[in-house]
Design a protein that fits this description.
Elements lengths: L3 E2 L5 E4 H11 L4 E4 L6 H9 L5 E3 L4 H15 L3 E5 L3 H4 L2 H10 L3 E7 L15 H4 L6 E4 L6 H13 L5 E7 H5 L1 E2 L21 H13 L3 E5 L1 H5 L3 H11 L3 E3 L14 E4 L6 H9 L2 E5 L5 H4 L10 E6 L13 E4 L2 H11 L7 H13 L13 H11 L5 E5 L3 H9 L8 E2 L10 H11 L4 E7 H6 L3 H7 L5 E6 L4 H10 L14 H4 L18 H7 L3 E5 L2 H13 L4 E6 L23
Parallel strand pairs: 3-4, 3-5, 5-6, 6-8, 7-8, 10-11, 10-13, 11-12, 13-14, 14-15, 16-17, 16-18, 18-19, 19-21, 20-21
Antiparallel strand pairs: 1-2, 2-9
Helix pairs in contact: 1-2, 1-7, 3-5, 3-18, 9-14, 11-14, 12-15, 16-17, 16-24
Length: 591
């Protein structure tokens, strides 16, 4: 029961019960929560609502926050994570910053020391609201339990409206224990916060339609804002009506089907040659829900320098921030596209342009050495994509080379099936976010394509997968190195190895040559991921021969619980193409 009978007959509710009931009332079905001294009343309240909300215990607070992100990114609903004060709260910081940069609706709830000792450096006290001030969309320190119903209402509203983002609620222990009579539906108090999404004006829509009509070489530049707005269908309809080719950011993958002839796949630093060439040569760039990130633009003044730029975004701060737009529109992108699709006409002669894009696409496909007798990372990902094509599949990734190869070689046709820490680039994202996806989609096949560096940052969540019966699969591309940093060492630092080898080193032998070639002193593969995974209760296997790969992948996919497939791959492989940081398409490295 969430209410308590008092002798006077007055029915009152504790702050902890108010918070948990508010979660239930806002439709929260799963919370990822790690208890501690200052959040124990909240966890006690969660047990009283066990039939209405599932509490999943992660093995690290960061893992819980990334799991909440996985839940959110794959459903569009706000993810919820809870931690105790002090180190519990600070362990959420990276995932909160990650959610802010990728515009993910996240409710982060932290316990706090009692109000009377705040500011005294009490045991496990940190001023988490101050710590997170610059990385949240909004934040609350609850000092009066009577404010809590309003705060919960506002938190969900803020996290999910406009440009989505994380909201932090810091809850002192004495506030959790205080009981009051409750007004469950208080008015919100958000002066200056615009509740209704902005809408493009009719004259702006007519301007965009006219620009499309007059264009000869138009390109759609589609980002994560399209997915957040639920506007993927509208993008597809616009392409159907106009024939304009589509390039996507890493956040936009899945917004437009990769197997469509007009898909140019991903653009940017490790994007396709054909997407980057098309943006270089276009005369109209229609940017939808993007922020002109440096990993896309390279040298920003040279990006799409011949193009008229249309930029539609719900966040006015993004317009003209990195790249000046000729037509800048503050609008919900779905609304703008719906209105545009009512009046748009195809360019008068786009056929020569689409033919050129198809010529580039045929001439410069993503490629790798298919004759290599071992297993290359690209080959493993392509084989996995082939075996899972007919399944309801979600893919998460860590950060590094494997992330970019997954973006290149695993095709996505639906939004919210590809989950990547894109803006912050957080290693350790893959496994816990897959855990959250699996909790949201229990019947789906959820695969974390990971590298051995990223995987070890949150490897403890294998225990959560096993104990919570979350059958996440891990395709571990194990090259024993921090592969992306190694690639930059090779390209720009004379291949000098500066602490990027993850295996054991004989320091006496290695001391003669510094760290230039530490892999020469490696013995067997380290660590033994198969034994580690089995120690957590998961299925596991290792594979190094190309001829054994398909059967190993099938075993992983069909295994009834969580499974780690350790795929031994070379460390010398590079992600190509590559536009060096701050440079242009004309500086692209192809081999």
């Amino acid at each position: 029961m969430s209410t308590i009978d008092r002798p006077s007959g007055v029915r009152t509710v504790t702050g902890a019960d108010i918070l948990v009931k508010s979660l239930v009332d806002h439709g929260v079905e799963v919370i990822f929560a790690y208890p501690g001294g200052c959040s124990m009343p909240l966890h006690q309240a969660l047990t009283r609502y066990a039939g209405k909300i599932r509490t999943i215990l992660p093995r690290h607070e960061q893992g819980g926050a990334f799991a909440a992100q996985g839940y959110s990114r794959s459903t569009g609903k706000p993810g919820v994570v809870m931690a105790t004060s002090g180190p519990g709260a600070t362990n959420l910081v990276t995932a909160i910053a990650d959610a802010k940069l990728d515009s993910i609706p996240l409710i982060a709830i932290t316990g706090q020391v009692p109000t009377k000792v705040i500011g005294t450096d009490a045991f496990q006290e940190t001023p988490i609201v101050e710590v997170c001030r610059g990385i949240t969309k909004h934040h609350y320190l609850v000092t009066d339990v009577r404010d809590l119903p309003r705060i919960m209402k506002e938190a969900f509203h803020i996290a999910t409206t406009g440009r989505p983002g994380p909201v932090l609620i810091d809850m002192p222990k004495d506030v959790q224990l205080t009981d009051i009579e409750v007004d469950w539906d208080p008015p919100m108090d958000l002066p200056g916060y615009r509740a209704e999404p902005p809408k493009a004006r009719p004259e702006q829509i007519r301007q965009i339609a006219a620009a499309i009509k007059l264009a000869r070489r138009p390109i759609l530049y589609v980002g994560g804002g399209v997915i957040a707005a639920g506007a993927s269908d509208e993008v597809r309809e616009l392409v159907r009506q106009t024939g304009i080719p589509v390039a996507m950011t890493v956040m936009g993958l899945g917004a437009f089907p990769s197997d469509d002839p007009l898909s140019l796949d991903m653009l940017g630093m490790h994007g396709s040659v054909y997407a980057n060439y098309a943006v270089r040569d276009c005369d109209l760039l229609i940017a939808l829900g993007v922020r002109f990130d440096d990993r896309v633009t390279g040298k920003v003044e040279a990006f799409a320098k011949h193009a008229k730029i249309v930029h539609i975004d719900i966040d006015p701060s993004e317009l003209n921030k990195n790249k000046e737009a000729h037509i800048g529109v503050v609008s919900d992108v779905r609304f703008a596209l719906q209105e545009l699709n009512r009046i748009v006409e195809a360019p008068e002669d786009i056929r020569a342009w689409t033919r050129q894009c198809l010529v580039w696409k045929e001439a410069y496909p993503f490629r790798y050495d298919e004759s290599f007798d071992g297993i290359l990372q690209q080959h493993a990902i392509r084989a996995l994509a082939r075996l899972t094509k007919q399944r309801d599949t979600y893919v998460t990734v860590g950060v590094g080379q494997h992330q970019m190869w997954a973006a290149q070689f695993f095709p996505f046709s639906r939004p919210r099936t590809w989950l990547s820490s894109s803006g912050l680039g957080t290693m350790g994202f893959g496994l816990p976010s897959a855990m959250g996806v699996q909790a949201a989609h229990p019947d789906a096949l959820v695969i974390d394509i990971d590298g051995d560096g990223s995987f070890q940052m949150n490897i403890q969540e294998l225990a959560t997968c096993y104990c919570e019966k979350l059958p996440v699969k891990v395709l571990l591309l194990n090259n024993q190195h921090l592969g992306m940093v190694v690639q930059w060492e090779d390209r720009f630092m004379g291949s000098n190895r500066a602490h990027t080898y993850l295996g054991p080193i004989d320091h006496e032998e290695a001391s003669g040559i510094g760290n230039r070639n530490p892999h020469a002193f490696a013995c067997d593969r380290y660590p033994d991921f198969v034994s580690i995974a089995k120690g957590y209760g998961c299925g596991a296997a290792t594979v190094s021969r190309k001829s054994d790969l398909e059967s190993a992948l099938t075993e992983m996919i069909e295994y009834p619980g969580p499974f780690v497939l350790d795929v031994q791959v070379p460390y010398q492989e590079h992600v190509l193409p590559m536009i060096p940081s701050g440079m242009t398409v004309d500086d692209m490295i192809l081999e």
